Amino acid sequence: MITEIEMGKAESELELGLGLSLGGGTAAAKIGGKPGGGGAWGERGRLLTAKDFPSVGSKRAADSASHSGASPPRSSSQVVGWPPIGSHRMNSLAAKSAREEEEAGKKKVNDDEPKDVNKKVQVGFIKVNMDGVAIGRKVDLNAHSSYETLAQTLEDMFFRSKPGTIGLTGQFTKPLRLLDGSSEFVLTYEDKEGDWMLVGDVPWRMFITSVKRLRVMKTSEANGLAARHQEPNERQRK
Amino acid sequence: MDRRFPFKVLEHIFSFLDANEDRNSVSLVCKSWFETERRTRKRVFVGNCYAVNPLKVARRFPKMRSLTLKGKPHFADYNLVPDGWGGYAWPWIEAMAARRPLLEEIRLKRMVVTDECLEKIAASFRDFKTLVLTSCEGFSTDGIAAIASTCRKLRDLELRECNVDDLGGDWLSYFPETSTSLVSLDFSCLDSEIKLSDLERLLSRSPNLKSLKLNRSVTLDVLEGLLRRAPQLVELGTGSFSDELDPEEISKLTKALSELKQLKSLSGLWDLLPEYIPVLYSVCPRLTSLNLSYATVQMPDLVDLLSRCSKLQKLWVMDMIEDKGLKTVALCCKELRELRVFPSGADLDEEDVALTEQGLVSVSEGCKKLESVLYFCVQFTNAALVTIAKNRPNFRCFRLCVMEPFAPDYRTQQPLDEGFKAIVERCKDLRRLSVSGLLTDKAFEYIGVHAKKLRMLSIAFAGDSDLMLHHLLSGCESLKKLEIRDCPFGDTALLENAAKLETMRSLWMSSCFVSFGACKQLSQKMPRLNVEVIDEHPPKTRPDSSPVERIYIYRTVAGPRQDTPEFVWTIHKNPEVGVSRLSTR
């Protein structure tokens, strides 16, 4: 039967253990104590604490002082699997806000956009896989309105371990630039016909209606696709 | 003298036993009772498909007619279990096809079902009647077509929230013209359009059809024609409810709905437009179940509808109902037993949040039969929880999701410990609990002390230390499923309470401080537990003290599973072998 004192000992032993495994020097994880306290366990990611979530309205204004800027505040919807709503329902909500956005944006129709703006876009979470990474992820296309934000999210997902998400490939310090073909990886997608295409060639709206899933591919393997991409550059050089 | 009951007498007595819990108890009494029971069990339930070998199950129950299986951990619903984890139906289908060809019913939840599985079912069980797939994936509409075309006695075909590779609506045309046995059909999770004439003809020749759930692509203008062909429906899931109808069409639809004299359950109602609410008036007084969770209507319209539903027992709705709407529910729906309020995605930072804890307090006051709640809310107070507990000690299922992690009582800034204490103290029959908001170890001490009948507990972003887990594992006697994410406890509590884990179905932990070393120790200590580590990186390349991302621990008599993907590591019992993947894939 563990007494509180023994548990306390175990706690501090655990503290020390974690501190050591982090390579010393770094603040050892402080388990227990006040709410909002959390731990750091280095590059693998850390436990989320209250500081990671923005205050709700002015009632929590007092807490905003404690946001020391250690990490940018995020909405709780950026945490994987939170709030705990089933994916069917999530997709339905996402589709609803996409339609609302479409309705709001009907006034600004570009030449780029397809004529049938009234067509309902039911896009939600789509799968993303990366070469060499076993665990695939899902990304909510409705949360994005351009290729840039999508690429940024994917870079964060796979290459930088943000708190609250799994750092899938560990650290990677160079900025990735998935869209311009200058890095080791390119972003590709499978369209409704089953063909694999390079992301970025078609207007965004057209892209989200035809994309089925995404893949971060090694540039060396994206040969057939890369050729299409390089041509404009080559033309530019001439 | 042989004191045993003759087999025939025992068999007759056991035939009155329906509940598997009773049958399980009975089978433990002595060998002859075990034998008699197993020979008479018709409905088999396996809560974790990896807990037992399918062949053994097939052999044990020769009279099996119905099989229910569950695969992935519950948190798979929230994308916390990576794709490819497992939960394959195939070994079960294969085993049953070979040994139990008289099987009539298969119900699967959170499993990977391929077209091959479905074709095997269609080909192997000549009396097959019921297929219910909930939150399953891995199959296409081709598999469904195989079932439709081959199972001559098919009664129930239900796809609930499945992830289907939708190749088109042709599958519906595969029901042979001679098939008239259909009782329930649910294709609400499919995307593509079905051919109206196929459906109309199917309805016309299915006089026994009691439950029909359409998908969203079935438009409102065709609904009337469908209902005219199935006036005997007890459950209806409409398609989209937002297309424009002219007055004549509206009047026809209203009439068709009023003809559904047996209708008790209504769902679907995607994008319900306020102007169509009066169309539903006629069915409201008879409804016992109403799912408005996809109906994007505002509070006044919801009130309009709900004030007419005096017999309602089950209500699913979005937070647009607001506190005001829930007050109406409290006044008008006196038979209410189950309430679920889902978030509509409104901005969390909004000042005037119209759905607060007050809504749930009202319902707990007015609806005396309320026993099951799922409530998403931005913030809560201890006082509200205490009041709710006082009002409704008969809760069996209480799931509160305060959407802002670590949110304290917004009036007192205190943790919600006292509120949840009231819930577990007063609700002596509580079977399922989900906690949220700011919680310290104290909350879990209370749960450990009071929640003696609790079977399932879900926790996120809570607690301070190992004490939290220790309280739960040492206190909750009936605990069967525990799922935890993002809580700061570690190894000690887990190892101290290892024996408890064998009395439970499963334990899921993600983003906690459990180390790889502890997983190894646990596995060595407990021979009948599978300790599975889900991690991108091979655990053996990291020090024992490093924390693992996700762990799934479950009791099993089948040993480590052979179908783990590359990111799941089953810890070997033999410390020399360490960790490896047993799969040959």
TrEMBL record, chain A:
<feature type="region of interest" description="Disordered">
    <location>
        <begin position="52"/>
        <end position="115"/>
    </location>
</feature>
<protein>
    <recommendedName>
        <fullName>Auxin-responsive protein</fullName>
    </recommendedName>
</protein>
<feature type="compositionally biased region" description="Low complexity">
    <location>
        <begin position="64"/>
        <end position="77"/>
    </location>
</feature>
<feature type="domain" description="PB1">
    <location>
        <begin position="123"/>
        <end position="219"/>
    </location>
</feature>
<keyword id="KW-0804">Transcription</keyword>
<dbReference type="InterPro" id="IPR053793">
    <property type="entry name" value="PB1-like"/>
</dbReference>
<dbReference type="Pfam" id="PF02309">
    <property type="entry name" value="AUX_IAA"/>
</dbReference>
<keyword id="KW-0539">Nucleus</keyword>
<keyword id="KW-0805">Transcription regulation</keyword>
<keyword id="KW-0927">Auxin signaling pathway</keyword>
<keyword id="KW-0678">Repressor</keyword>
<comment type="similarity">
    <text>Belongs to the Aux/IAA family.</text>
</comment>
<comment type="subunit">
    <text>Homodimers and heterodimers.</text>
</comment>
<dbReference type="InterPro" id="IPR003311">
    <property type="entry name" value="AUX_IAA"/>
</dbReference>
<dbReference type="InterPro" id="IPR033389">
    <property type="entry name" value="AUX/IAA_dom"/>
</dbReference>
<dbReference type="GO" id="GO:0009734">
    <property type="term" value="P:auxin-activated signaling pathway"/>
</dbReference>
<dbReference type="GO" id="GO:0005634">
    <property type="term" value="C:nucleus"/>
</dbReference>
<comment type="function">
    <text>Aux/IAA proteins are short-lived transcriptional factors that function as repressors of early auxin response genes at low auxin concentrations.</text>
</comment>
<feature type="compositionally biased region" description="Basic and acidic residues">
    <location>
        <begin position="104"/>
        <end position="115"/>
    </location>
</feature>
From TrEMBL, chain B:
<dbReference type="InterPro" id="IPR032675">
    <property type="entry name" value="LRR_dom_sf"/>
</dbReference>
<comment type="pathway">
    <text>Protein modification; protein ubiquitination.</text>
</comment>
<dbReference type="InterPro" id="IPR001810">
    <property type="entry name" value="F-box_dom"/>
</dbReference>
<keyword id="KW-0217">Developmental protein</keyword>
<feature type="domain" description="F-box">
    <location>
        <begin position="5"/>
        <end position="46"/>
    </location>
</feature>
<dbReference type="InterPro" id="IPR041567">
    <property type="entry name" value="COI1_F-box"/>
</dbReference>
<dbReference type="InterPro" id="IPR041101">
    <property type="entry name" value="Transp_inhibit"/>
</dbReference>
<keyword id="KW-0833">Ubl conjugation pathway</keyword>
<dbReference type="InterPro" id="IPR001611">
    <property type="entry name" value="Leu-rich_rpt"/>
</dbReference>
<dbReference type="GO" id="GO:0010011">
    <property type="term" value="F:auxin binding"/>
</dbReference>
<dbReference type="GO" id="GO:0010152">
    <property type="term" value="P:pollen maturation"/>
</dbReference>
<dbReference type="Pfam" id="PF18791">
    <property type="entry name" value="Transp_inhibit"/>
</dbReference>
<dbReference type="InterPro" id="IPR006553">
    <property type="entry name" value="Leu-rich_rpt_Cys-con_subtyp"/>
</dbReference>
<keyword id="KW-0539">Nucleus</keyword>
<keyword id="KW-0927">Auxin signaling pathway</keyword>
<dbReference type="GO" id="GO:0005634">
    <property type="term" value="C:nucleus"/>
</dbReference>
<dbReference type="Pfam" id="PF13516">
    <property type="entry name" value="LRR_6"/>
</dbReference>
<dbReference type="GO" id="GO:0009734">
    <property type="term" value="P:auxin-activated signaling pathway"/>
</dbReference>
<dbReference type="InterPro" id="IPR036047">
    <property type="entry name" value="F-box-like_dom_sf"/>
</dbReference>
<dbReference type="Pfam" id="PF18511">
    <property type="entry name" value="F-box_5"/>
</dbReference>
<protein>
    <recommendedName>
        <fullName>F-box domain-containing protein</fullName>
    </recommendedName>
</protein>
